[in-house]
Each structure stands twice: as structure tokens, then as C-alpha cells.
Amino acid sequence: MLEMENNRDASAAIISASPTSSPPPQLSPRVVLSPCAACKILRRRCGEKCVLAPYFPPTEPAKFTIAHRVFGASNIIKLLQELPQSQRTDAVNSMVYEAGARIRDPVYGCAGAIYHLQRQVSELQAQLAKAQVEIANMELQRSNLLELIYSLDQPNQEQDNMSFESNDLGFLENNCNSTNSPMLWWDPLWT
């Protein structure tokens, strides 16, 4: 041990006494980049070729935290490395969504959300079908009512033996002089 100390002292003396020793190299000014959210959370150095950096920016640490809790960092990295570059963004978004759904609903995850939305769609379709049936019934009742009114009005006109050249209800007259499309007063005005 004493020998090592002597060697260290001797090498330090040689370095400091050496006239040809060069000054320490100048460090180039480094651009300080903040590490991506994944490297920051994992407490590791974020290199230039970090696979996670494009998908987990430093401004969105919660995005990586959610995915990391469910899938783990090594699985996320493996998955991204296996995929082509064009599909990685979609894969990360899917993983984050799946992880968020799994955290909210540990049993069903995304399947629970899909089931809920499908149930909502089927309920809305049933309501739409019911409304369409009600509309059809109302249209049928309206046409039946108009037929009844017309049939009740016809015998009264025949009994009076009055001949009218114009319609009593002037606002329901056919203003169109075309004989191809006569509009009767009981015809619907809208569809």
C-alpha cells in the first residue's frame, strides 16, 4: 500500500514537472437538451439514438408514466424496435390509451370501454327505431283523419246540391295551372 502511494506521488510529480505536458483540451460548448420523458423517469442518459425520445417528449411525462406502469419500459422498447418507423407513433398512442383504460378498469381495460360504447349504440338504435315507428303511426293517423274528414264533407256537399266553382278554402287552392299535378286539399303539404 505504501508502494502505491509512492508511485502516485511520483507520477504526480512527473506530470507536474514535465515541461512538455499539454494543457487540458478545450471543451466545445455543449447544447443542453433535456432528456425525453422516458429517460427522465427511468433516470438514465438520453442518447441521440434514444428509441423513446420521439414518442415521449419531455413536456409529457404522464404519457410515459401511464404506459410504463402497465407495459414496462423494456417491453415498450422491444415493441418499438420491432415495428417499422411509420407504425411507431400509432403503436405508442395505442399503448398509452390501453394503459390508461387498464388503469381505470383493471379487469376489462379497453374491452370494457368498447362494450360500454357498443351498448350505448344499441340503445340509441332502439330509440331511433321507436321514434321511426311513432312517426309512421302519426302519419297513418293523419291520413286516416284526413280521409274521415273528406268522407264526412262529401255527403254534406251532395245534400246541399250546391255547385261551387271555386274551393271554399282559398288558402288550400292549387295555384299551379298545371293539370298534370293537381293538389288536393287533403294531400300532405310536407313529407
Automatic annotation (TrEMBL):
Keywords: Coiled coil. Residues 114-148 form a coiled coil. It comes from the Eukaryota. Residues 34-135 form the LOB domain. The keyword Coiled coil applies. Pfam families: LOB. The keyword Coiled coil applies. PANTHER family: LOB DOMAIN-CONTAINING PROTEIN 11, LOB DOMAIN-CONTAINING PROTEIN 4-RELATED. Belongs to the LOB domain-containing protein family. This is LOB domain-containing protein 1. It comes from Noccaea caerulescens (Alpine penny-cress).
